[in-house]
Amino acid sequence: MASKTASVCVVFSLLIFVLLSQQTLAKPTDPHGHQHDSFKFIQHLEGCHKGQNVSGLQELKKYLTKFGYLNYDHSKHANDDEFDDLLESAIKSYQKSFHLNVTGSLDTTTVKQMMVPRCGVPDVVNGTRKGTKNHNRKLKSIHGVSYYEFFFPGPLRWPPTKTHLRYRFASSASQVPGTENVRSICAQAFQKWAQVTSFTFEEVPATSSADITIGFHRGAHGDMAPFDGFKGALAHANPPTGGNFHFDADEKWSANPGPNEVDLESVAVHEIGHLLGLDHNLDLPDAIMYPKFSYGIVKRDLTGDDIDGIRALYGLQ
Length: 317
Description:
Zn(2+) 1 binds at residues 221, 223, 236, 246. The chain is an alpha/beta fold. Helix content is 29%, strand content 11%.
C-alpha cells in the first residue's frame, strides 16, 4: 500500500513538473515578462483597409486617439472593429504627418512606423497639427526652413520672470532597473537646454516645492494619461507651466543602451523640450523633438532646429 501511495505521489509530482515546465517555456523572454510589445498588435493588422471588420482595429482606434489623430466624439464605431471613413481619414493624417505614402490603409511601411516606441505626448490636437495655425515654421534667409513647433493653443512658455526652475524626483514605482544614475543623467539633460537658453535648473529634495516633478510610474498614475507597458509610450511631459515629467517604469532603461534597451538621457532631453514649451517635430527624424525612439539608439544632442525653436519661443534670437 505504501509502495502504491509512493508511486502515485511520484506520478503526481512528475505531472506537476511537466505542467510547470510547459508554463515556463510559454513565458515570454523579454525582461519584463510581457507577452509582447505594447504596439505589437498593429503588426497583425497589416493590409487592413476601409470596409473591413478585423479583430484588433478597436485597439488601433485607441492608439490613434491617444496620439491625437482620431476623434470619434462618442460615435458608435469608437469601440468596434469596423474600418470606417473616420479611421481611414485618421490613418491618412498619420501617414501625411510622418511623410509616408498617403494610402489610408495599413501598408507595411505605416505599420512599421506605428510600432516604433515613442513619446506619449500627442502629435495632433482636434485633427490639426499643433503649431499649424500659429505659423511657427519660419523661413530664414540663411538657414532655410525651420520645422520646430510650439504647443497649440499657445505658444505656451514660462513667464519672463521664471528662468530658474527647480525640479524634484517623486515616483510611484521603485527600484526601476537601469535608472540608478537618473539624477545625474537628468542634470546632464537639463544642461543641454540651459546652454542655449536663459534657463538654469536646480534639483531640490523630494519634499520641497518645485516647478517640475520627475518620476517613474506604471499604468494609470493619476494624470489621465496611463502608460501602456513595454515598448509603448516611453514617457510624457506637460507644457509650461504644468511641470510634470513621467517615465514609464515598464520600459527597459539604460544609461548606455544595448539593442534591447532605451537610452534614458535621450528621452529626458526630449521631454525637457516639452516642459519648456516645444512640441513634436514630425519633419526631422534627427531632431530631439521627433517623437519616435528606437531601442538601442542614442540621440542626446540638440539639433540646430531644436535650438532655433527654443530660442524663438523665448525671444532669444
